[in-house]
Specification:
The chain has 15 helices and 13 strands. The chain is an alpha/beta fold. It starts with a helix and ends with a helix.
Length: 414
Amino acid sequence: MKTGEKKESQLHYAVRLLKNEGFLALLIRALQKLQKMRHRSSRRKKDILLLGDTEDILKADWTEGSYQQPEKPIKTPCTVVWVMSPPGASGGGHQNMFRFIRHLDSMGYKNLIYLYSTNDHPSIELIKERISGFYDLDPANARWLKTGETITEGDAIFATGWETAYPVFNAHSKAKKFYFVQDFEPLFYPMGSEYVLAENTYKLGLIGITAGRWLAQKLSTDYGMKCHHYEFGSEKKLYSFTNENKRKEVFFYARPITARRGFELGLMTLQKFHEMNPDYTINLAGWDVSEYDIPFPYVNHKALKLDELSRLYNRCAAGLVISLTNMSLLPLELLATGMIPVVNDGQNNRLVSDNKYIKYAAPAPDALARAMDEVVNAENATAYAKEAAASVQHNGWEASTDKFLKVFEEELHG
């Protein structure tokens, strides 16, 4: 139908409606049509949402050659740029990162924090407040990295998550470029664009310093990435053995929003454990789980503060920690308080810690529940807990931060 014919038809329809049903009916139909037109015009197309900005990803054509690290030695101490996502109040990954930044501070390095995100932009002051429990951030040394902006500062630059590796690769700088890797991030996603984009960051030519041996071995073997690693530790000021009495409680690190922590697998394990040991109190901490239908009695501790954890840990005989990618920091922290960690077996965990007091079991509810049952019903449980705590007395973070500094300076000096 031509435009003129369409308008004439609409006019005839309006006249008939006015004649047969009155002015009010005509007004209602007109308003309904106007509403539909407005709804159509206001409908936005969906944004492409990724952790990394597409502009930065498109700039980083690593297929034409990975980053060539400068050969000229860099004098130390020097200026180090850390590109990171905005920290939350209790993120373990950021706490660990700032542990090493704090160590560089103490050795005379200048650390600059570049914040990078495609969706979350809190103020620098809010971030300073969020991390005040584990780092005193100087706002003068922190800023937001804008989309597409090129980094020009620093003698060394660290990427700290897959999305930050692209702007680090793109930096117009003669800096040494590093990758502080705490997990195998492709596994955070189903196979798809984000998996591939995360995986590609291991091909950029950045020097990896990884949390534990499993990551260093995997990235060097599978992607040819140059890697060093540091060992995990336990914060002695926070975690210590204080309860030598019989313990009638157990613990589960419950993080339903973090798939790699196996929340559902953990609940099935604890359901089996509760059937075996109905007199044991089950503590869940790490997230507020009150909205979930959990098939056994439990205490919901939600997200505890760091200085509250040791008291809870000292009440528990066994702790279920499921780590389906890189190992969690928790097992050594639990051991320091005399709690025996029950952990799913696999190279991703054993290559990080071979402490004999960690109870490894197949990643199946029955096997994990039996392991917990063996721990809580052991005849020598109290003496064993004391031995377990003693086994990590030498596993403070001092050795880890010293090794980090050693390999970092070796790379800088060339």
